[in-house]
Amino acid sequence: MSNLESLPAEVGLPVETGTAPCAELLEGRDVPLGRYTVVRRSLPNKTRRTVGAWCFLDHFGPEDITGGPGMRVPPHPHIGLQTVTWLLGGEVRHRDSLGSDQLIRPGQLNIMTAGRGIAHSENSPTEHPPLLHGLQLWVALPDGSRHIDPSFQHLPDLPVVETGGARVTVAVGELGGASSPAVVHSELLGADLTLTAGASATLGVRHDFEHAVVVTEGTVSVEGVPVSPGSLLYLGALRDTLRFETDGEARCFLLGGVPFEEELVMWWNFVARSHEEIVEARTAWMAADTSRFIPVPGGEDPLPAPALPTTRLLPRPRYRHS
């Protein structure tokens, strides 16, 4: 999925509060995605840039797209990241410059590694279910992997763990003895929790990971803090367990990872380390340079890049030092 903001800006960072356990509720903001879809963006946030290597989180829907086109994201480029698509309802067709043409449905995972450069489009099929609902996430690739060749994985079957009224699907990484086959390049966790009414589940988590939770349906109490759709609860690191409770049926997505210490330049659909890298990638995209970005099959007009800001883009850490 693309960042379609016409004036994408660098995001301010918080004064660091340490990596100890905490409960920081971050409000998302509404961002138009093309002409037809509005998403709630939780990362990057004005008070936090990353959770582990997770650097971007959009929650879209639930939206009734009966009689409408649904998602329409034309071909656009990425560098230096992985996109992770997780559907809760509906269908999305992914096409990319590698020739991948894949329909994704709920419970399946699409993970696209941009590396040195890839382009893709995401659209609802012409004949589509009435509801569209899901998450789009990005993972910042570490320096040793960010220039690798692009690749794409579609994973229709993922491991599931059940405990305390929670059904946990491990999309990325390891949890509860289950391991996802998704290929990632840093120590990372992404898991979907479906909770029955009255559920009370405690999950063991890695002590060295920082964690955050986004609720997609209902209300979930995480470590005693109630969370509803539209917010991201950042939980810090140095925890061994996380407790999830709910009165009614609910659903949430758990993010985790070793704190990502590399400084990033994030602008539009690019994750880089310098202003020059961003300029180079934008120039290649606008020039239709096929040595960097091969066209996406299908004949759709590509999305033009917005104008660069008038000031130099600077590398940013995951937090602002006080």
CATH class identity: Mainly Beta
Overall outline: globular
* Major β-sheet strand ordering: 1-22-19-24-17-14-13
User: What name goes with the CATH superfamily?
Assistant: Jelly Rolls
Uncertain segments of ≥5 residues (pLDDT<50)?
A: 9-17
What's the quaternary structure here?
A: single chain
Protein name: Pirin family protein
Organism: Dactylosporangium fulvum
InterPro entries: Pirin, Pirin_C_dom, Pirin_N_dom, RmlC-like_jellyroll, RmlC_Cupin_sf
Region (Disordered): 296-322
Can you describe what's shown?
The structure is a single chain. This protein has 322 residues and is mainly β. The protein has a single domain, classed as Jelly Rolls (Sandwich), CATH 2.60.120.10. The protein contains one helix and 26 strands. The strands form six sheets. A seven-stranded antiparallel sheet has the order 1-22-19-24-17-14-13, with no helix packed on it. Strands 2-3-4-11-6-9-12 form a seven-stranded antiparallel sheet, with no helix packed on it. The chain is globular. It starts with 23 loop residues before the first strand and ends in a 36-residue tail after the last helix.
